Amino acid sequence: MARRPLVMGNWKLNGSKAFTKALVEELKRELDGVTGCDVAIAPPVMYLAEAEAALNSCECSCQTKQIIALGSQNVDVNVSGAFTGDISTEMLKDFGAKYIIIGHSERRTYHKESDEFIAKKFAALKQADLVPVLCIGETEAENEAGQTEAVCAKQLDAVLNTLGADAFNGAVIAYEPVWAIGTGKSATPAQAQAVHAFIRGHIAKHSQAVADQVIIQYGGSVNDANAAELFTQPDIDGALVGGASLKAPAFAVIVKAAEKAKA
Ligand code: 13P
To answer: Which pTM value belongs to this model?
Structure first.
């Protein structure tokens, strides 16, 4: 089954108002004419307004605007009320955000987010009609101990066992081995493909149809030099890009590589 690739930029804790405006405008120029790949950016939520305004301004091509969707790096499970510092699904929708990253390893590690809590976020996003981008992946120690599949299965099961396989209809999974994030040491295409095939197979145990349509991105040191080879793999449906998403030319090379590989 043909799946439309998705390349998403996770800007993490980077940027400013001026940086956001400039990068979005440059991305619009660089991505002009791309039709075969979905593209999303997740700036810090502080700058969603700047990103939305820059996407909607008509100085550049209006067509390009339509291919760059907005996203967020996190969301809370609550919709409103006394939850200091949190951001709700409704607030994200207010800015036109669509793809919402949850379960990133940096949040699992630095904010002690559990599989169960992340599953609740997944449910909140489905409830709000937003697209969860569920990050999963093993640490270096787990990888060396041969636990990659067990870790990924456990992280998926938190959603599968509470919401069912249908929750993955229209959702996105990002396989991001922790040892590859920000290290310059990407998984090889063959390594990533093996885990992606395992992930799809794990969903298929519940529903083949859901498994066939779910987008599985690879993330971890994806750059303009290694993206094309990663995208040759049948179960790699795009990328979740950190560092290289902060530079429009590099990000555009990655998007165009996905478009070409999956044409
Ligand atoms: P890098 O591309 O900087 O390795 O980050 C990957 C990532 O964590 C995307 O969510």
So the answer is: 0.97
